[in-house]
Specification:
single chain, 754 residues, alpha/beta, Rossmann fold, Barwin-like endoglucanases, 3 domains, binds ligand MGD, binds molybdenum atom
């Protein structure tokens, strides 16, 4: 913990600009990576370089020499740090002692350097060579009564080549248990969109920003979580394109932004206004807003105005009439109450949408992390279909993905519910019969651990126990396991909450070079807009004892499946051989992969709705109904507040870079609760009071977090926000979207107890 005192003050400057430049310089300095880091920064997101390990937003057209952003630089600095976690470090601390340290402290210890094994007698991690580590994994997995007793997690930084082979290895082992970070993130996109438009991905590409006539940014904190997208928003704004931001928090960068790469703007301390409409939505109020907008359209259509694209609707869609009837049955009074937005603004926003001939709707966790997240996204599609916003430049749906390769991992087989088509291809290409029964998503994997069914957990990246809901229960579930394996670059909580046996396996990171007997290798990454590009590290690995993720997968496979006919050893050395197999399993999108990836711009994976082709069972785009206005089960408790757990500006998921959240004016503190001043005084609280939050849930478990400082913040009434992962103990395991399994982390029903 930093020893400075907490400070709270309103941030008056634009987001980005000199503040961002200064923060970038500071973080590079602190991690002692100035020269090394600057060299790496020059190679980041450039042809021949590596892909930024931070977010999944695509790169601009390489026009700029320094196409990076503050948070990309932070992610890189924390990877390229000079600090090291060595065997001497592990000698110094027992695991119980390490458990007392904060996540921030663990992160600051630096890069892992060699494989370690848990020794129960001393309660310490001790060195263990790679062969012994793989042998331990193999013997645990082979000893299981059923392959379904193991859980194989993936976090979205893992590149395509490693993820593809991991999926093959695990299926040859015999299970589809693939809990994934996507299960907590954009799974509603992957599961909700296919019944609507036939694909579980976004339909826009970067150039669409140049053609859009209106852009909606719903439930996404762009300036912090996808800063490179700010460039596109600023450019669109300069063209006079209306941008509508829908958010319960007036996120600074969505209101005003100075572009760090625009030297003139920085020299003059200028900034561009971003949103032309800021819609201050209640938490979970988006469905009511969308229905309000649709209601305006149907009302005006009934008066004979040309607000619907009838030609598109007739040619491409099914189901309009049921939607029209249901939407017109919603009363304005209810729409206004549930959304928290007045009718005049809804009409204004609908008018912006109606006037635009090409609209993009971008969204993030503010839409996905609700109990009906998947079906909510289908309503976003409904709105887009009404004006034919597919298959034309500037129109479409744009999920802004999180991890840099989370979409790619899904594409190449990390999927607990794989399609029959994929399984048949795996059988034909690799010559074994893969399991057909669906496996566990993240929540189901924790339930299986809890019930004593799961015995082994392997984490390919990520920080599973910190990312998942119900912290205490999830810790207890992990501790029941026979073996936990953390494949990682940094020490994290997931290595300390472990099974009877436990391994930490350190890997070569995104920014570092991979050399094998066949020469230098590169990996590939798919961004949020389906572009696949090569990523080649430029730095020397943090330690000579690190392995690439591909090699770890292949050697786990060899140790577990000694009779496997798959040439795992060859894949360790030559990644083109892996890409040839990806092409064989996915010929429609990945044909000639090894050739096409030589193009510095990579390849774009086909997204059929862009061509007005709908791979749905009826071959049409479907208007789908979500009755009513609520996306969460209503709670009849007048003391209830809806809690959104969000990211600060200085964290990457469970990695805490600092205790500051500059744009929200919070310094040296993460245990805060953003609250509307009227909600605060209604509870008899002073600004700055310390409170406890308690979850409202009828499953008999008490969930509380103490020591939260209440901050006055322009939240809508009834809505509060605080930081993830500190508030994960409040999120019940059973509180999730049933279609996708995604925890409803943006709408936890809580009350204040003092
Ligand atoms: N620097 C940095 N970059 C990141 C990450 C990071 O942690 N740090 N994480 C990466 C990952 S994995 C992901 S998934 C993305 C996440 O990026 P975001 O989707 O931006 O994620 P969050 O910070 O969780 O916040 C989502 C936004 O939703 C708003 N919100 C909350 N409830 C509602 C609601 O009911 N309706 C609406 N309309 N809005 C709501 C919040 O106020 C917040 O602005 O970013 C990725 N990029
Ligand atoms: N309450 C609440 N919970 C949430 C969310 C929320 O908004 N609210 N958001 C959810 C979302 S969107 C997501 S995506 C999940 C994130 O869940 P995870 O993806 O599991 O978590 P991260 O914090 O991104 O994982 C960080 C760890 O990954 C390892 N790592 C980093 N780079 C690499 C690499 O190149 N290779 C390997 N093998 N390991 C690497 C590091 O050791 C680091 O400690 O959390 C979810 N949980
Ligand atoms: Mo995410």
């Amino acid at each position: 913990m930093t020893d400075s005192k907490p400070r709270y003050k309103t941030y008056h400057h634009p987001a980005g600009g000199w503040g961002a430049a200064a923060a970038t310089a500071k973080v590079l300095l602190e991690q002692s990576v100035v020269t090394k880091g600057s060299r790496a920064l020059l190679a980041m997101n450039q042809p021949g370089g590596f892909k930024c390990p931070s977010c999944a937003f695509p790169d601009a057209d390489c026009k700029k020499t320094l196409d990076f952003c503050e948070n990309g630089a932070k992610a890189l600095a924390f990877e390229a740090t000079k600090r090291r976690v060595t065997r001497e470090f592990f000698e110094q601390y027992t695991v119980s002692e390490l458990m007392e340290k904060s996540d921030y402290w663990l992160e600051m210890q630096g890069r892992l350097t060699e494989p370690m094994r848990y020794d129960a007698a001393s309660d310490r991690y001790v060195p263990c060579d790679w062969d012994a580590a793989f042998a331990m994994i193999g013997s645990h997995l082979r000893a299981l009564e059923s392959p379904h007793h193991a859980e194989f997690y993936t976090s979205g930084r893992t590149p395509n080549e490693a993820a593809f082979l991991y999926a093959i290895f695990i299926r040859q082992f015999g299970t589809n248990n693939f809990p994934d970070c996507s299960n907590m993130c954009h799974e509603p996109t992957s599961r909700g969109l296919p019944p609507s438009i036939g694909v579980g991905k976004g339909t826009v590409v970067l150039e669409d920003f140049e053609h859009a006539e209106a852009i909606f940014v719903i439930g996404q904190n762009t300036g912090t979580n996808s800063p490179r997208m700010m460039t596109n928003l600023v450019e669109a704004r300069k063209r006079g394109v209306p941008i509508v931001a829908v958010n319960p928090m007036p996120e600074r960068a969505l209101i005003r932004f100075a572009e760090p790469q625009d030297i003139l703007q920085m020299a003059t301390f200028g900034s561009s206004p971003i949103a032309s409409e800021f819609v201050h939505i209640r938490i979970g109020g988006d469905l009511a807003l969308l229905k309000g907008m649709m209601r305006v359209m149907f009302e005006r259509d009934a008066k004979g105005e040309k607000v619907l694209d009838h030609e598109f609707i007739r040619a491409h869609t099914v189901g309009l009439e049921a939607i029209r009837e249901e939407v017109l049955a919603q009363e304005w009074k209810d729409i206004v109450e549930v959304s928290g937005v007045d009718e005049a603004q809804i009409r204004r926003v609908a008018d912006i949408y109606i006037r635009s001939r090409a609209t993009m709707i971008c969204y993030g966790m503010g839409l996905t992390q609700h109990q009906d997240g998947s079906r909510l996204l289908q309503q976003v599609v409904n709105l887009l279909l009404l004006r034919g916003n597919f298959g034309k430049p500037g129109g479409g749906i744009s999920p802004i993905r999180g991890h840099s390769n989370v979409q790619g991992d899904r594409t190449v087989g990390i999927d607990e519910k794989p399609s029959e088509e994929y399984l048949d291809r795996v059988r034909d290409v690799f010559g074994f019969e893969p399991p057909r029964a669906h496996g566990h998503h993240t929540i189901e994997s924790i339930e299986a651990m809890h019930d004593g069914v799961a015995k082994v957990f392997i984490g390919m990246g990520g920080n599973f126990v910190r990312a998942v809901p119900d912290t205490e229960r999830s810790y207890a579930a992990m501790r029941k396991l026979a073996l936990t394996v953390g494949i990682a670059i940094k020490l994290n909580r997931g290595h300390l909450v472990h099974g009877r046996d436990a391994l930490i396996l350190p890997v070569i990171s995104r920014s570092e070079m991979i050399h094998t007997s066949a020469g230098e290798q590169f990996v590939t990454i798919e961004d949020s807009m389906s572009n696949v590009t090569a990523s080649r590290g430029v730095l020397k690995p943090a330690s000579p004892d690190l392995l690439p993720e591909v090699e770890i997968v292949c050697r786990m496979a060899r140790a577990t499946l000694p009779d496997s006919k798959i040439p795992w050893e060859s894949y360790i050395h030559d990644y083109d051989l892996i890409r040839d197999k990806i092409a064989a399993v996915y010929p429609e999108i990945y044909s000639d992969f090894s050739e096409k990836i030589k193009n510095p711009k990579g390849l774009h994976l086909d997204v059929p709705p862009r061509r007005l082709v709908w791979p749905t069972p009826n071959g049409k785009a479907n208007f789908l109904l979500l009755p009513g206005l609520e996306v969460n089960v209503p709670v009849a408790d007048p003391t209830m507040l809806r809690l959104a757990t969000v990211r600060s500006h200085d964290q990457f998921n469970t990695t805490i870079y600092s205790y500051n959240d500059r744009y929200r004016g919070v310094y040296n503190d993460r245990m805060v609760l953003f609250m509307n001043a009227e909600d605060r005084s209604a509870r008899g609280l002073e600004s700055g009071s310390r409170v406890t939050l308690e979850t409202i849930c009828d499953d008999g478990v008490q969930r509380r977090v103490d020591g939260l400082t209440v901050l006055d913040y322009p939240m809508p009434r009834g809505a509060v926000a605080g930081y993830y992962p500190e508030l994960n103990p409040l999120l019940p395991l059973g509180y999730y979207d049933k279609i996708s399994g995604t925890p409803a982390a943006k709408s936890i029903p809580v009350r204040v107890v003092t």
